[in-house]
Automatic annotation (TrEMBL):
<dbReference type="InterPro" id="IPR036156">
    <property type="entry name" value="Beta-gal/glucu_dom_sf"/>
</dbReference>
<comment type="similarity">
    <text>Belongs to the glycosyl hydrolase 2 family.</text>
</comment>
<feature type="domain" description="Glycoside hydrolase family 2 immunoglobulin-like beta-sandwich">
    <location>
        <begin position="190"/>
        <end position="286"/>
    </location>
</feature>
<dbReference type="InterPro" id="IPR051913">
    <property type="entry name" value="GH2_Domain-Containing"/>
</dbReference>
<dbReference type="InterPro" id="IPR006103">
    <property type="entry name" value="Glyco_hydro_2_cat"/>
</dbReference>
<dbReference type="InterPro" id="IPR032311">
    <property type="entry name" value="DUF4982"/>
</dbReference>
<dbReference type="InterPro" id="IPR017853">
    <property type="entry name" value="GH"/>
</dbReference>
<keyword id="KW-0378">Hydrolase</keyword>
<dbReference type="Pfam" id="PF16355">
    <property type="entry name" value="DUF4982"/>
</dbReference>
<feature type="domain" description="DUF4982">
    <location>
        <begin position="642"/>
        <end position="700"/>
    </location>
</feature>
<feature type="domain" description="Glycosyl hydrolases family 2 sugar binding">
    <location>
        <begin position="82"/>
        <end position="176"/>
    </location>
</feature>
<feature type="domain" description="Glycoside hydrolase family 2 catalytic">
    <location>
        <begin position="293"/>
        <end position="487"/>
    </location>
</feature>
<dbReference type="InterPro" id="IPR008979">
    <property type="entry name" value="Galactose-bd-like_sf"/>
</dbReference>
<dbReference type="InterPro" id="IPR013783">
    <property type="entry name" value="Ig-like_fold"/>
</dbReference>
<dbReference type="GO" id="GO:0005975">
    <property type="term" value="P:carbohydrate metabolic process"/>
</dbReference>
<dbReference type="Pfam" id="PF00703">
    <property type="entry name" value="Glyco_hydro_2"/>
</dbReference>
<dbReference type="Pfam" id="PF02837">
    <property type="entry name" value="Glyco_hydro_2_N"/>
</dbReference>
Length: 820
């Protein structure tokens, strides 16, 4: 009898392989209408939206507008917010009457409300949550339906960084049977992994609108689509049930940062021979662990985390997630040697997490920047202390009602990503409890007295909240570590807050590593936020017990800045346009084994370093922000005769030698400099400055700059020659000002005018500068450091895109991109 049942199941499975899936997943991004302004009557079915703008999602209305100081803030990048409404009309076919239909949003910023055919579906205030609604009760079949979304971002200073405004992440329409796997309803755990075998346990939540005998089958497929294991289970489901389906996968291919092998768990639901649902999740097989003395291990191998913190905006395209834009950005980080990313300080877009899976980064996905209490927001300049108490708003306003659901949904929606190794509860929450700062500054032994004096009963709400959030996370996922970014370790040790996370992150507190490792020998420690200096990295590599660091930041981000026109912070490895900064070139020499060298210069009178009494001295007037800043050197050899020039050379070669027009200015080693940056003071002579990396008598790498003062050409370079005509693919066109020899002219600023013909849409221009407040949706841009960036997205029509740039009488080379 058992053999017959197995044979029947196999027969049903083979039929299903060739049948059309009962689950429809429709891209719901195209053909929306939008109006900026509060139009509450728009939720009505018979509202006339003919004059509204037609657009495709994802969409961020803030980045489309001009930078301004009117009703904006430095904290959110000097871009307007407001209230916006979206409407989309669609038809569900008659044959779907006996099915269920859902809409899923990957994120709306923020305070969204959704209606279908005039019926209110729900609200979601947190702008980074993935969520959905069932549409079935209010659908009309075979005729028009209208979904309406209100987005209320009227508070323009609700965050410490740029958020964007609108339906800025993807939307899907799901249709399936009445016995089905709900949103987030299937996940995979790998409790046993070896080179010989992995136990892959798939969990499936099954919902049914009526009592049914069901068979649930899971098939595990490798990246080629080959089935490498399967199992099935029968259940009588009335309402909701959760099934566990273990499968043995032999000789598994492990996911790691160098080989990102993935598997797919295909969950199918049957009632007899009727196929009811088909839900797929991608996952990876790997092991990871922290050791209190040796740091982090991935698949049994010790791995020092070379991490960066990332905000979610992408410069000229704002908060919207565009796969190709982020792929270019992540590749730039990977080429530097980055292997880890902390999503700061909110859950990342699902598409960004998938890129991390595919490209090979380990990830900390972070829930919140604020818990029960809000942090200060600023208007013009944090550094001018231009705060307004009325703008002390944020997640604390909704914590009590929404925090448990938001935290759990972060975990549910992204727990299948093999890249994620930790869930972060939050960041620097101590600043919202002033007694923590007083405890940090108190004399030894008086900290608990301060706590009692400040709270009355010695009860620490911060620690209790951390324990609450950790419990929520563990209720959903026990396979990963829980962490937090802490900034006041002395106080946190006194209250016990630093003992709550499984792994404790230290923000800018490397000075506490040794003492805390001694006093808390079982604590897992890493640098969760770090200045981008050599010392921060050295503090980690000199200590096996420090798992790694996360530089603040990997890529420049909008907001947390001021005064105008300082729109964002470029204290990063890459600027707003994705070009390497001097710090990026420097870290490439630290984090990349391939021989690397880079030269940057500055007029000696403007340099922060001076050569005095036979040694290099940092001559800056110290300001606390300087800890994040890097010497403002430039990629230029354009000076005047008689000038003295300060030169920095970054290299991972044992020694470097500097030449000016062939004349040597000596051999030096990065190890002879405390900051690992080789420094020279040389006279300017028109021609070439060149640095050579050396390993003994062997030349390992070369970098040079040439005098180039006059622009004679505009050079365009595209990162691809073909795109899919899908309305998503993007080509990045980099523009450079060059002389007749093709050398970059970094000191000239010219306004470029781009001309675009064919099946492409301009979605952004930028020059990478943190004080660039030119409109991003324009075809014009003034260069910075001789460069600019143009982003063109394909339409849904095949053809060709022609791109040229002009500046006065200069005309660039022509770029042709085919769309297929």
């Amino acid at each position: 009898m058992k053999g017959i049942s197995t044979a029947i199941l196999l027969f049903v499975f083979l039929i299903a392989l060739n049948a059309q899936s009962p689950r429809s997943v429709e891209d719901f991004n195209f053909g929306w209408k939008f109006n900026l302004g509060d139009t509450p009557e728009a939720k009505s079915v018979d509202f006339n939206d003919e004059c509204w703008r037609v657009l495709n999602l994802p969409h961020d209305w803030s980045i489309e507008q001009n930078y301004t100081t009117q009703n904006t803030s430095g904290s959110t990048g000097f871009l307007p917010t407001g209230i916006g409404w979206y409407r989309k009309t669609f038809i569900v076919p008659e044959e779907s009457k006996d099915k269920l239909t859902f809409i899923e949003f990957d994120g709306i910023y923020h305070h969204s409300e959704v209606w279908l055919n005039g019926h209110f579906l729900g609200k979601r205030p947190y702008g980074y949550s993935v969520f959905g609604y069932e549409l079935t009760p209010y659908l009309k079949y075979g005729t028009e339906n209208t979904v309406v979304v209100k987005v209320d971002h009227s508070n323009y200073a609700d965050s410490r960084w740029y958020t964007g405004s609108g339906i800025y992440r993807n939307v899907r329409l799901i249709t399936t049977s009445k016995a089905y796997v709900p949103q987030f309803g299937a996940w995979v755990e790998t409790p046993e992994v070896s080179s010989k075998k992995a136990v892959v346990k798939t969990f499936a939540v099954i919902k049914s609108t009526s009592k049914q005998k069901l068979t649930v089958r899971v098939s595990i497929k490798d990246k080629s689509g080959k089935v490498v294991g399967s199992s099935s289970q029968r259940a009588v489901v009335s309402g909701i049930d959760t099934l566990a389906l273990p499968v043995n996968v032999f000789k598994p291919k492990l996911w790691d940062i160098a080989h990102t092998d993935m598997y797919t768990a295909n969950v199918q639901v049957y009632a007899g021979s009727k196929w009811l649902d088909d839900y797929q999740v991608e996952f990876g097989v790997r092991t990871f662990r922290f050791d209190a003395n040796k740091g982090f291990f991935l698949n049994g191998k010790n791995l020092k985390l070379k991490g960066v913190c990332l905000h979610h905006d992408a410069g000229a395209v704002g908060g919207v997630f565009i796969k190709d834009v982020w792929k270019r950005r992540l590749q730039g980080l990977k080429d530097i040697g980055v292997n880890a990313i902390r999503m700061s300080h909110n859950p990342a877009d699902p598409g960004l997490l998938k890129l991390c899976d595919v490209m090979g980064f380990v990830v900390i996905n972070e829930a919140l920047d604020e818990w029960r209490k809000n942090k200060d927001k600023w208007i013009t300049s944090r550094f001018a202390k231009d705060m307004r108490p009325a703008l002390k708003t944020g997640y604390g306003d909704i914590y009590e009602e929404w925090a448990e659901q938001d935290v759990k949904d972060m975990v549910r929606s992204s727990r299948n990503h093999p890249s994620i190794i930790m869930w972060s509860m939050g960041n620097e929450i101590e600043w919202t409890y002033p007694y923590y700062y007083k405890m940090e500054q108190s004399n030894q032994g008086l900290g608990n007295q301060v706590l009692v004096e400040e709270t009355g009963d010695g009860r620490d709400e911060l620690k209790e909240t951390a324990e609450e959030i950790k419990r929520w996370i563990k209720e959903v996922d026990t396979t990963r570590y829980v962490t937090a970014g802490g900034v006041l370790p002395k106080a946190g040790n006194m209250t016990g807050y630093f003992d709550v996370p499984d792994v404790m992150g230290y923000n800018y507190r490397a000075v506490n590593y040794d003492e805390d490792h001694k006093n808390y020998p079982n604590r897992f420690i890493y640098g969760s936020e770090n200045w981008g200096t050599y010392q921060e990295w050295k503090d980690a590599i000199d200590r096996d017990f420090v798992a790694g660091i996360f530089i603040w930041t990997g890529i420049a981000y909008l907001g947390e800045s001021g005064p105008f026109p300082w729109k964002g912070l470029e204290i990063s490895l890459m600027d707003f346009a994705g070009f390497y900064t001097p710090r990026g070139h420097f870290y490439k020499t630290l984090w990349n084994d391939e021989p690397s060298i880079y030269v940057a210069t500055k007029h000696a009178k403007k340099a922060q370093w001076i050569f005095e009494d036979g040694k290099w001295v940092d001559n800056r007037v110290r300001f606390w922000l300087d800890k994040w800043l890097f010497e403002d050197v430039e990629p230029t050899w354009n000076y005047e005769k008689g000038d003295e020039v300060f030169v920095e050379v970054y290299s991972n070669s044992p020694e470097v030698e500097l030449f000016v027009n062939g004349e040597s200015y000596g051999v030096k080693s990065p190890n002879d400099f405390e900051d690992h940056i080789v420094k020279y003071l040389v006279p300017y002579h028109e021609g070439e400055i060149k640095a050579i990396g050396k390993d003994g008598d062997k030349e390992t790498c070369v970098y040079s700059l040439k005098t180039a003062k006059w622009v004679s050409k505009i050079k365009l370079n595209a990162d691809r020659k073909t795109m899919k005509a899908n309305g998503y693919d993007v080509v990045h066109v980099e523009a450079e000002l060059t002389n007749g020899n093709g050398d970059l002219v970094p000191d000239k600023k010219m306004q470029l005018v781009f001309e675009i013909e064919g099946e492409g849409v301009l979605i952004g221009v930028d020059n990478g500068w943190d004080r660039n407040v030119q409109p991003h949706k324009s075809n014009q841009i003034v260069t910075h450091n001789g460069k600019a960036l143009l982003l063109i997205q394909s339409t849904q029509k095949a053809g060709e895109i022609k791109i040229i740039a002009k500046a006065g009488s200069l005309v660039s080379n022509e770029i042709l991109v085919a769309t297929e």
